[in-house]
Amino acid sequence: MSEAEAKIRTRGLSAWFGARPVLRDIDIDIDARGVTAIIGPSGCGKSTFIRCINRLHEMTRGARMSGKILVDGVEIQGPEVDPVALRRRIGMVFREPNPFPAMSIRDNVLAGLILNHGRPSRARGDEIVEAALRQAALWTDLRDRLGAPGTSLSSGQQQRLCIARTLALEPEIVLMDEPCSALDPVASAKIEDLLHELRERYTVVIVTHNMQQAARVSERAAFFLDGELIEYADTDTIFTAPLDKRTEDYITGKFG
Ligand SMILES: Nc1ncnc2c1ncn2[C@@H]1O[C@H](COP(=O)(O)OP(=O)(O)OP(=O)(O)O)[C@@H](O)[C@H]1O
């Protein structure tokens, strides 16, 4: 993987909560487009890693990071980078579906845009809502009830609505933190199907504790342990011929 091609590059990325180190010296290059899975046992720093990439980590009291994160070769921590603008380019989907309860489905999709740029015209809003719901595979189901509350949907639909809300901002990178952990297997399968579509257009980085899911949805996988990046390779290699014994022990279920 050449450095010039990497969409996201970290060099010596370390992170702390208070005095406690949770990421140590992570160097990784993530190519544009496709899905990269971040795997590893609970507490190994997976969420912290992706929260550094969109500068959410630094919003936590007492949390800090050092090292470099580059997106398209440009450092994202510099004082000249506006974290809010950065988060439009680097969207995030969280574990629990979190649509805004007081808002309609339509306004939920537009929420990020309204916050950033004000309410678009009716016609432009319609276009954005349709495009985002289509990408989230919700348009056919929801086109006739866009005025209903976002919370009237099933939890799987709510999570896809949150994905639509992220996509409405036309991000380049989509970070997902265990997006299926609150969903049943059928709803999880729908999100996985969606990932197969999104990989064509976006650079997706997904944290998952589900090995089968990582194997199904990702092209590349990074195994973290105790805040360190132990191994990073194409997903087939990680699952069939890992180089590091610790990766092998983890993927074969010996710990974690
Ligand atoms: N807000 C916080 N304050 C203090 N420590 C935290 C905070 N959030 C996470 N940690 C600690 O930092 C370490 C890394 O957490 P992180 O959530 O990044 O791990 P993870 O691999 O995503 O874990 P899990 O799979 O359980 O979510 C853990 O030991 C966790 O307890």
- Say which molecules are bound, naming each kind only once: adenosine-5'-triphosphate
CATH architecture of the domain at 6-102 and 173-252: 3-Layer(aba) Sandwich
What is the highest CATH level, the class of the domain at 6-102 and 173-252?
Alpha Beta
Q: Which outline best applies? A: globular
GO molecular function: ATP binding; ATP hydrolysis activity; phosphate transmembrane transporter activity
Protein name: Phosphate import ATP-binding protein PstB
Organism: Enhygromyxa salina
EC number: 3.6.3.27
Overview of the structural elements:
One of its GO terms (molecular function) is ATP binding. Its EC number is 3.6.3.27. Residues 8-251 form the ABC transporter domain. It comes from Enhygromyxa salina. This protein has 256 residues and is α/β, with parallel strands linked by helices. It has a domain at 6-102 and 173-252: Rossmann fold (3-Layer(aba) Sandwich). It has helices spanning 46-53, 83-89, 105-117, 122-135, 139-142, 155-167, 185-198, 211-217, 235-240, 245-251; strands at residues 6-17, 20-31, 34-39, 63-71, 74-75, 90-93, 173-177, 203-207, 220-225, 228-234. The strands form two sheets. Strands 6-7-8-3-9-10 form a six-stranded mixed beta sheet, sandwiched between helices. Strands 2-1-4-5 form a four-stranded antiparallel beta sheet, covered by helices on one side. The two termini are 29 Å apart. The mean pLDDT is 94. The structure holds adenosine-5'-triphosphate. Adenosine-5'-triphosphate (ATP) binds at residues 17, 22, 40, 42-48, 60, 209.
